[in-house]
Amino acid sequence: MKRSRFSFMGTLALLIVDSLATVGAYVIAYRLRFQTDIVPFVRLPSPLAQWGSAAVVVLCFLTAFAMNGLYSRRRTLNPVDEFVRVIGGVSVGTLFAVAIVSFALLGILELSRLLVVYDWFLSVVLVSIGRALASIVEATLRRNGIGNKRILIIGTGPPAHVVLDKIRRSPELGYTVIGFLDENSLPGFSSELPILGSIGDVASVVKSNSVDEVIVALSRSNSESILDIMDLLDSSDVQVKVLPDVVQMITQDAGIDDLNGLPLVAVRQTRLRGKNVIIKRAMDVVVSMLVLVFMSWFMAIISVLVKLDSRGPVFYIQERVGKDGKVFPCIKFRSMMHRAEAATGPVWAHRDDNRKTRIGAWLRRFSFDEFPQFVNVLLGHMSIVGPRPERPVFVQEFSSRIPRYMDRHAEKSGITGWAQVNGLRGNTSIEERTKYDLWYVENWSPVLDLKIMLKTVAILFTDNQAY
């Protein structure tokens, strides 16, 4: 099946799924309002008013979905982002429907206020479920090579291999990397994939290999090199994406300031100041208390299992570096043998680490060993969302070789973070993690924190980088 046809069929399938979901939501909402005794009603609407209003609601919802970009499918769109977009689309569609029925069709159709509330909630739920099922089917087809995109990566350094690793760990995206290009490399092989030439060959390589998308991931990219690539691909309809480097990451949200008439570009704007500190702290306290209260039974079971499984304490307290470079005691369930580092000293955990206990391997696989860190959050050592705290010995090492590494300590460390929910945990690139941490620190918002929390829950049982 050709990729363009696959894309069209995918959009058509979503349109059908959304139509069925919105019709189903309206029918259930109507029955809840007029065929139950939950809230008394004065009279039943006529069949014309009932089905005419249903048609208006469904058409308004589908129009709002299109306006909200729900049919401009992005393979990398995560379920949390899609859920937020569905809420936005349903909300706008509801306003459209109420406005049309109340003004343009007044006296012909009618919408009960309670029915509108029911329909909004049910539409969000049913559309989200329908799209989740459609995404599962679509991902299954892509894993089997149906509708895959052919990808060319420009670059052969660490950033290019980060992109390649991400693609290989995400078969559901339907990306097939055909090879690399680099401005200084001759044809050869890198990571079992061919280096097809230099940047100057990009147009011919794209054409001869039927490339659908080019990803620029140079070790030291600049505006001139990116413009050169765009110029070489001017006559091609291939899509071009750029992996930002550290400078691009810190300037992408830059603002314009004024120094008595002299314009200045503000490349670092700290968001967590003033009332935002209070908002984030309030979110931390509320969420951590809810987790500790409602998951206390589960944590008690884990404590018993850890104690029975191996000799040693239930909890493991380790020094970590937090806000402003201050060291704090990080609490975790013990997942390794007692005194595991007595002979080796501080070492980085890896997938086949034989120091893990039987229960510990299970705890680390699903990140259950980190539940006690909600106590750290209540004590103010950590936040729920933020850059992951590292041990002092590793912080000293990373800060000496990674630019702006210590800037990630401008805010509290977190149990989860922007880097972690984007697949950068475990034995992955510290440089890439730092980019994500810096972006988070300078782009914080309550909505971003909620998004990261929801994404953390969504990937809890599917993250293969947890070990």
Detailed description of the structure:
With 467 residues, this protein is of the alpha/beta class. The protein has 3 domains: 3-143, no CATH class; 149-243, Rossmann fold, CATH 3.40.50.720; 275-458, no CATH class. Helices cover 50% and strands 12% of the residues. The chain has 16 helices and 12 strands. The protein has helices at 3-34, 47-67, 79-104, 113-143, 158-168, 202-208, 223-232, 246-251, 275-294, 296-309, 358-365, 373-379, 392-401, 418-421, 430-442, 446-458, and strands spanning 149-154, 175-181, 188-190, 193-195, 213-216, 239-242, 255-259, 262-266, 315-321, 327-333, 383-385, 414-416. It has a 4-stranded parallel sheet, with helices on one face. Strands 3-4 form a two-stranded antiparallel sheet. Strands 7-8 form a two-stranded antiparallel ribbon. The two termini are 38 Å apart.
Short description:
The chain is built from 16 helices and twelve strands. The chain has helices spanning 3-34, 47-67, 79-104, 113-143, 158-168, 202-208, 223-232, 246-251, 275-294, 296-309, 358-365, 373-379, 392-401, 418-421, 430-442, 446-458; strands spanning 149-154, 175-181, 188-190, 193-195, 213-216, 239-242, 255-259, 262-266, 315-321, 327-333, 383-385, 414-416. The longest helix is centred in the N-terminal third of the chain and has 32 residues, at 3-34.
Helix and strand layout, with pairings?
Elements: H1 3-34, H2 47-67, H3 79-104, H4 113-143, E1 149-154, H5 158-168, E2 175-181, E3 188-190, E4 193-195, H6 202-208, E5 213-216, H7 223-232, E6 239-242, H8 246-251, E7 255-259, E8 262-266, H9 275-294, H10 296-309, E9 315-321, E10 327-333, H11 358-365, H12 373-379, E11 383-385, H13 392-401, E12 414-416, H14 418-421, H15 430-442, H16 446-458
Parallel strand pairs: 1-2, 1-5, 5-6, 11-12
Antiparallel strand pairs: 3-4, 7-8, 9-10
